[in-house]
Design goal:
The chain has six helices and seven strands; from the N terminus they run αβββαβαβαβαβα. It is of the alpha/beta class and 157 residues long. The chain has one domain: Rossmann fold, CATH 3.40.50.
């Protein structure tokens, strides 16, 4: 069952997520995720879901902010959640820039968007997105897919 963002209250969130997800770490550091989402309520909810699951989260509200965050040499991301439809530089353009840079070729990027057009999804996959999650999404589904991307052994479970 899909939950709408505006209908997800704190009680449902806690019941859905609970403490079933261990902290995500790479070595001694928390797993760092960049959320690129221009709709602030979706950005905040996604950030809350990931922080509750133990991720270190940075949020960007535009393609330009995302590229600046990725280029920041003091910060390394383990995964990017990237909305497609944004004003200015859109998610597909950001993805293209990420994949053109040699040091980011293995950075997992997940397209997180309301667009359901097959051609747009295919374009994202062709540009190098590892997965596509359609909004609205269920918090558990989001975390399960991220977990599988970050730890390939989980794909067998």
């Amino acid at each position: 069952m899909q939950m709408q963002f505006q209908n997800l209250n704190c009680i449902e969130f806690r019941r859905t997520i609970g403490n079933r997800f261990p902290l995500f770490k790479v070595g001694e550091q928390m797993t760092a995720v960049l959320i690129v989402e221009d709709e602030i309520h979706i950005q905040r909810l996604t950030k809350l879901i990931l922080e509750k699951a133990g991720f270190e989260v940075t949020a960007a509200s535009s393609g330009e902010e995302a590229m600046a965050a990725i280029e920041n040499v003091s910060k390394k991301f383990d995964l990017v959640l990237l909305d497609i439809m944004m004003k200015g530089v859109d998610g597909l353009q950001v993805l293209k820039v990420i994949r053109q840079n040699q040091k980011y070729t293995s950075l997992p990027v997940v397209m997180l968007t309301a667009i359901a057009q097959e051609a747009v999804v295919l374009k994202g996959i062709q540009l190098g997105a590892r997965d596509y999650i359609r909004k609205p999404f269920h918090p558990k589904d989001l975390l399960d897919r991220i977990k599988r991307l970050l730890d390939p052994r989980m794909a067998k479970n």
